[in-house]
Amino acid sequence: MSHGSSQRGGQFPYYDHCALCIFLFALIVYFQTFFFDFVFDDHVFVVFNIPIRSLNHVVDFFSTGFPLNRLVTLWSFALNYKIYGLNPGAFHFINFFIHLLCTFSIWWLTRLILLWIPIYRGDKLGVDQQLRLSWVAFIVALVFCVHPVQTRWSALIRKDFLL
Questions:
Q1: Which of 45, 54, 74 is nearest to 62 (CA)?
Q2: CA-based radius of gyration for the chain
Q3: Helix, strand or coil for residue 154?
Q4: Could you give the C-alpha distances from 119 to 11, 15, 116, 161, in angstroms and in order?
Q5: Cα separation of 5 and 28, whole Å?
Q6: Which pLDDT tens digit goes with each residue over 130-157?
Q7: 53 neighbors 75 (Cβ within 8 angstroms)
């Protein structure tokens, strides 16, 4: 059986399987957060934050008293509110999706760095070495995705990572 589209990206034929594995592990870990309610400062940043209730109030974000470095966060709340209203599950799902994108970025960057360093030093990498380094990048991304420290990004609404 041919690997077909799984061969993209060089000698590592398991991208599709690894991507699915990361998605499933993340879904298993974070699925319950889709049913969480607003907690802690979610009430301040989302529930009682009147300017996020209309995209017409984007200018009002400058006068809300929130730090200006949180504008992207406030705009994402406004967009989320426009589409889903005050549905906490939707806010948690968007956080899950953003965390998944970050995880895939970590996977790609780690693999890129691990494969680039030996080539930069002038070493030639064999297929076995490339495969091993690709698996290391996958494991790094998987640990990043499901590590308990990362649960706050999906369990809480506040998006500090969207500065």
A1: 74
A2: 20
A3: helix
A4: 15, 22, 5, 32
A5: 26
A6: 888 889 999 999 999 888 776 666 667 7
A7: no
